[in-house]
Amino acid sequence: MKWTKALIQTLRENPGDAEIDSHKLLVRAGLVKKMAGGLYTYLPLGLRSLKKVENIVREEMNRAGAQEIVMPILQTAELWKESGRWDSMGPNMFKVKDRARHDYALAPTAEEAVVDVARSVISSYRQLPVTVYQIQWKFRDEIRPRFGLMRSKEFLMKDAYSFDTSMEAADGSYEAMYEAYKRIFSRCGLAAVPVEADTGDIGGKSSHEFHVLAEAGEDGIAACQCGYAANLEKASRRAPAREDESCPEAEVVPTPGAKTIEEVSRFMGMPASKFVKSLIYMCDGKPVMVCVAGDREVNEIKLKHFLDVASVELATPADILSASGASAGSVGPVKPLDASMRIVADFALKGAKGVMVGANIDDNHIKNVDLARDTKIADEDYADLTIVAEGDICPKCGAKMSDKRGIEVGHVFKLGVKYTEAMKAVYKTKDINEEVMVMGCYGIGVGRTMQAIIEQSHDKDGIIWPSSVSPYQVVIENLDPSDAHVTEVADRLEAELEAKGVDVIVDDREERPGVKFKDADLIGFTVRVVVGAKGLSNGGIEVKRRADDKSKTKVVPVEEALAVILDSLK
RNA sequence: CGGAGCGUAGCGCAGUCUGGUAGCGCGUUUGCUUCGGGAGCAAAAGGCCGUGGGUUCAAAUCCCACCGCUCCGACCA
Questions:
Q1: Shortest CA–C1' contact from A296: which nucleotide?
Q2: Of A79, A180, A252, A531, which one has the fewest beta carbons inside 10 Å?
């Protein structure tokens, strides 16, 4: 490809609306063009990289034995109503009507569609196990699209679905995908780590996310040196040992005007950790008091799972008053107004003595509280309910964990029979019984993966593409396009590289060398080859990998150039 | 959905407070000179100043409504 024939536009300045480096570079390097928030055109260079990521995903899916299909983006409402997600996905899903006023969804994911296929195509145990996948555009009405391709309304996603005869067999399909994912990200030059995750809207019994660690990541992750890693939504910890001294009788103390833990803590001159923060949640409509140490935060997802309820939300001021007898800020587990209210507590509070709690009387707290002595919290109502923080104890090995941030590039779920049961996807067993298929699902954000590569691999001058996903693996800088000899050498090299299956672009623009170098660095082609009149008369051409600094530039005779370039791509 | 900010040339921005009919840099086009890390000079093209309404002799500028974009937040007592 000749640069003068390619549709390439680079920008000198950062776009005004980009916050993170990878987003700025996507736009400056001319890979994408924004139409509106969360909607992007892939320009030729960007599409080339996207397709390369896509092909790596496809090859590894095929290698893992999955079979490619394509399902409709426009899907009937009936299908979504059957699983119950027409309502439960709520405003996250784009819904449209046809001219007959029938409802459709623009697919945000495709469990329903694939189960519909499975139940009609699969009828016998002989056809199982099977894993299918598609690489298809998905639509989600995100609350807040941001960071370029990171979170957009329309995105390319690889979604795979496995069907098995049993939970044990499904574990095997899951393992195969897990291994394929590791290969995919490694081939993209990404260091992606698997982390335990909550299953969220998709449901199912367990899941792992694959994260690229990056400061700009949207997710918090707790990680331990032993290899344990989990999304903060899911991460657990060991309760620290408590050896509280027994304390004198509890005593009500006035704390006028002090509402927040911070204010009461300052007022009393006691650290936040010696307070018990008591929050009232409405859980499936009933009030539940949740107690955690003053310096910790409730993990609502853990709470939801522990109580086994569908919804948890913080109570309104009126509900707080009727349940506790006080307003927020003075609530506590000792004798609330509603004596029937369930009280649960974080397991780190088990055995807490000498702590301070709200008194259920406005502007009053109780000090010297011994939770076992002074409250009615049942032993089984102590559970892991807080968000893990830096320095918490790893549940696996007991060492201290640290906080990281990550970009979620892939997610694998063990779904069990959640969809297959609701949609009656059954098969005949050997002895002619009907059984429900066991399912798994596995997603990769293709565009997001591409942006994660940029986020992880760039410097002040631009992107540094790994060879496997570079829009062109090699750029040949023809510094003197009007010089017939120089041009002949550059073009011959281009042809030789293409014959070897290398993607190459020749910068044949009538531009000053500085402009060409800046553009090559910005776009980040893996290898740069410089062919110029001066160089040719001084011994040859230059070969430099984008990732290396100038001192590693190799000057090689023309006849050796091909071999050196091919070697640099490895 | 709540709060804040912003919509002016392809991109980045000034001008708005204090109304008088639009400007800078980059990019683009042409010419000359330059030519190994974003060149210089000269000329030129390119704007319903987000949309609609209002005030005024006169509106990018003041008022109202709407649309769009960006950031922050979405109840942790």
A1: B76
A2: A252
